[in-house]
Amino acid sequence: MPGTPDAIPLRDQKKQQAREQILDAFIGLMTEGAADLSHDAVAERTGLGRRTVYRYFPDRGSLMDAALLRVRELAGVRVDYPTSAEELLETLEPIYTGFDAIAPIITMLRTTPQGRQLRLAQNRQRVRSYTAALADAVGELPPEDRKLAIAMLQVLHTTPWLEMRDHWGLSGQQIARATGWAARTLLIDLKRRGSLPLDRDLPSPAND
Contact, 139 vs 116, CB < 8 A? Predict the structure, then answer.
């Protein structure tokens, strides 16, 4: 019988499974602190041929880019760069609870040289995405201050998880509440601040 319109051909399913197998093996090796992260090491871990690994990922850069996207998939569908200030706030809880779900992998990303290399591979896209998403919120600030404000909001969107988890024993949901409060406070400040530089205090309400 013919498949339904939404059915994925078996061949495509096998390709997707092989691709995910390669990426999960690469991420697993990184999480374990393996010194060898070569295509050969991934092939040995998966049992796939070396040529198969290279066919899906011709070089180290393509493998690393795809691995970071795979981490996002594992953490949840809402773990991504925001497209607006509103989405930044809305996605805090999905992001931090998603991090809890794959805690060993996120810890690796935040604490190892390999993890840092993996995160930095996406840095240009990260900067472009947050700059576009927060353009309206920081638009009146002096140019240098726009960069500082965007950087601070980006940090709140993803970065405090490890410190707040390790130092305070907080869950992803609790971290989302705390960072949400901080991000909302900054966005309110930016709205009131207008073109006033970040190192200047806002006038008191009585003098507005």
Answer: no
In contact, 105 and 71? CB cutoff 8 Å: yes
**Cα angle 156-162-165, degrees, rounded to a multiple of 5:** 105
What does pTM read for this prediction? 0.84
Secondary structure string (H, E, C) spanning 122-180: CHHHHHHHHHHHCHHHHCCCCHHHHHHHHHHHHHHHHCCHHHHHHHHCCCHHHHHHHHH
- Both tokens of 7, joined, read 């059915």
Residues 150 and 134: beta-carbon distance below 8 Å: yes
pLDDT classification of 206: cutoffs 50, 70, 90? low
For residue 84, how many C-alpha atoms fall within 13 Å in the half-sphere facing its CB? Answer: 3
Phi, psi of 14 (to 5 degrees): -65, -40
3-state secondary structure of 2: coil
